[in-house]
Amino acid sequence: MRAVCQVVKCANLTADGKETASIGRGLLVYIGFCSDDNEHSIQKALKKISSLRVFCDNNGKLNLSLLDISGQMLIVSNFTLYGDVTRGNRPSYINSMGFEAANSLFEYSKAYLKDLGINLCSGVFGADMQIESVADGPVNIIVDSEDL
Q1: How much is the pLDDT for 137?
Q2: Among 4, 23, 86, 146, which residue's beta carbon has the most beta carbons within 10 A?
Q3: What pTM was computed for the model?
């Protein structure tokens, strides 16, 4: 699993023309799955994301996690995170997980994050989505399950 985690002041998501998710202060997380991912392999990454100390404490240091600030998370499925551009200019998505399996892992991810106590909203898997966000910092972290 590969994730791009962005600290935001707020974010909202529209899917197929309807606003379906909105958060205040927290994390906007784009997640993509590769063909080798399974429930076990993504648990470490999800736990890492929920524990990232990327929010400022009273001294202005990035020292607090999402749970520490009682923040919210918006997760959005994004198969393009496994786009390979090593050859040519058109990304290849051969390493991205297939639709059905990725949808299953996305649903699992939502349940797992809720079990961790995350105040969670999500995008609509496979939908045409527009996301508006106000980045804070900016702070952007990439988490890859292959590196954990």
Answers
A1: 93
A2: 23
A3: 0.96
